[in-house]
Each structure stands twice: as structure tokens, then as C-alpha cells.
Design brief:
mainly alpha, 75% helix, disordered N terminus, globular, 317 residues
Length: 317
């Protein structure tokens, strides 16, 4: 190997080593994110970018046009104003059953905390015996799997037995996975503490705070804002309500007319299905964007403001 080749080889080796170290740092930052007081990217863009603000206002104008279109349609065709309430009522149908399923999921999440405390109380005595300690770890993992299995399995079994309206079933399913991930995050963070390693377990108040905090990464402390801006909370909840009506207008005026009678005919033509699919592409995209903004921007920001949770970078951390 010539001297020039060796220099190229060493340069390439140094470059690869540097790239690997940068990748390792990047992965480490992804695994262990840092929390700080900061606003959501969309909040910053809407406040500082005229282009994004214009897009936001365009969606508001579309909502108003859909509202007036629905009012005129209801008056002409039905003789009364409905403004999408029938679609909302149908979507959130059997809300009592959905609320009971959510209460079951929430009680499982709450019961995890005393079980963790009991596990830690026994673990402090078991850590002196290595073999018993290994078996106790396996017992704890098995208990966690059983608890999360009950949290996920019971709602799925209940939903499979009897139909639940779309919006209610989506809410139950999302909360099921959210609470399961919350329990898993606490178990991973606090598992070693049950054997006297690290700081003591969190208080019940902090555990409940984490259950409702808009994050899936557990920390003993989070950056908190000085006060709750109730005007901001009200504004975000108004956005959530507006987006629900937005989706009801889209479904009632652009999606349901194509699919409300689907399957009732003796013969379904392929052209009818293709035409309905392409007709629903644009309303579907708008509905998807509205869902993203409703959950990851309006809803999470409202709860972050209520809880004075400082880090609003929900969809990047």
C-alpha cells in the first residue's frame, strides 16, 4: 500500500468512526430525550409564518362554507336544521358503554401503582438472595404482562362481541394503547428502583400526573410553566369541537352519500366502487389532516396547558 493509499484509508476510517459516533449520539438522544419548556412546532409556525397562518385561515373558511352548505341543504331537503349533529350522535353512539370500558382501562392503570409499591416492598428483602431475586424479576415481568394483557384483551374481547360506534370504539382503543404504554414506561423506569437501586418510587400524585400528562416518556420531574392560561385551554377545546363538526360535515356531505347504501343492492358494480373511492380521496385527506391537528395539536396542548406541562414538542420527542 502506498503512502497516498494509506492516507486515504486512514481518512476513510476516521470519517467512518466519526459518522458512527455521531449516529450513536443521535440514537442516544432519541432514546433519552431531554425535556424543556418549548411550544409546539405548529404553534410557532402559526404565530410566526404568514404562509402557515394563511393555510390555517383557509381551513377555517372551508369549515364555514361547509357549515352554511349543510344548513342550506337541511332547510331545503329536510325542512329543519341538523348541522351534522346526527352524524356526531351516531359516531359517539352507546357512549355509556364506551365510558365503562374507559373506566375499566383507567382502573387497571391505577391498580398498577399499589402493585408496584407492593413489589418494591418485597423486592428490598429479596435482593439479598440472588436466585430468589432472579425469580422475583421473572414474577414481576409476568405480572406486568398479565396486567397489560388484561388492559388490552378485555376491551378487544368486548368490542368483538358487540358493535360499538366508530368514534366511541376509536376512543376506547386509543386510550387502551395509551394507558398500556404509560404503564410500560413507568415499569421500565422504576423497575430497578424496586431493588433499592436509584431514587425512591414516585408518589401517587406524580403517577396520576404522568397518566394524564401528554408524554409517553416517564421522568420524576417535568419542566412546568408558571401558570395555566385558561384562555388558551378554551381556545384549543373550541378547536377540538370545531374539528369534530368539520369531520361530520365531510362525512355527511361527501362520504356517506357514496357508501350509505353500499351492500344493499343485489349487485354492486366495480365502476360504482371506484367512483366512490376516488370521490372520497380529498375528503379523506382533509379528515386525516383534521384528525392529526385535533389530537396532536389542539387536544394535547389543551391538557398540557391545564397540567402546566412545559414541553409541547409532542410529535417529535
Amino acid at each position: 500500500m502506498t503512502s497516498l493509499d494509506s492516507m486515504r484509508y486512514r481518512g476513510k476510517e476516521n470519517y467512518n468512526g466519526k459518522a458512527k459516533s455521531e449516529d450513536a449520539v443521535h440514537i442516544e438522544k432519541k432514546i433519552d430525550p431531554e425535556f424543556s419548556i418549548r411550544e409546539s412546532p405548529l404553534t410557532v409556525l402559526i404565530e410566526n409564518s404568514l404562509h402557515i397562518r394563511a393555510i390555517y385561515h383557509i381551513f377555517v373558511v372551508i369549515l364555514l362554507m361547509l357549515f352554511f352548505d349543510t344548513v342550506i341543504y337541511d332547510l331545503v331537503e329536510r325542512g329543519k336544521i341538523n348541522v351534522g349533529l346526527s352524524v356526531i350522535a351516531y359516531g359517539f353512539g352507546d357512549i355509556r358503554r364506551g365510558a365503562l370500558l374507559w373506566l375499566f382501562e383507567f382502573m387497571i392503570a391505577i391498580l398498577f401503582f399499589p402493585a408496584l409499591k407492593l413489589y418494591a416492598a418485597v423486592g428490598k428483602h429479596v435482593e439479598k438472595y440472588p436466585r430468589a431475586s432472579q425469580g422475583f424479576v421473572i414474577l414481576g415481568i409476568s405480572g406486568l404482562v398479565f396486567l397489560e394483557g388484561a388492559l388490552i384483551g378485555v376491551p378487544i374481547w368486548n368490542l368483538s362481541q358487540k358493535h360499538l360506534a366508530l368514534a366511541s370504539s376509536v376512543t376506547v382503543t386509543c386510550e387502551m394503547f395509551r394507558l398500556a404504554m404509560k404503564i410500560h414506561a413507568v415499569a421500565v423506569a422504576c423497575g430497578p428502583r424496586c431493588f433499592g437501586k436509584g431514587p425512591p418510587l414516585p408518589s401517587f400524585q406524580h403517577y396520576v400526573y404522568f397518566i394524564f400528562a401528554p408524554t409517553l416518556v416517564y421522568r420524576d420531574q417535568y419542566p412546568r410553566t408558571k401558570k395555566t392560561r385558561w384562555g388558551v385551554v378554551l381556545f384549543h377545546f373550541i378547536e377540538v369541537a370545531a374539528i369534530i363538526f368539520y369531520n361530520s360535515f365531510l362525512w355527511e356531505r361527501f362520504i356517506l352519500p357514496y357508501w350509505s347504501d353500499y351492500g344493499k343492492q343485489s349487485r354492486v358494480e366495480a365502476g360504482t366502487v371506484v367512483r366512490g373511492m376516488f370521490a372520497c380521496v380529498l375528503p379523506g385527506v382533509l379528515s386525516f389532516l383534521c384528525g392529526f391537528y385535533c389530537v396532536l395539536q389542539a387536544w394535547l396542548n389543551a391538557f398540557a396547558e391545564i397540567l402546566r406541562f412545559g414541553d409541547r414538542l409532542f410529535y417529535e420527542v
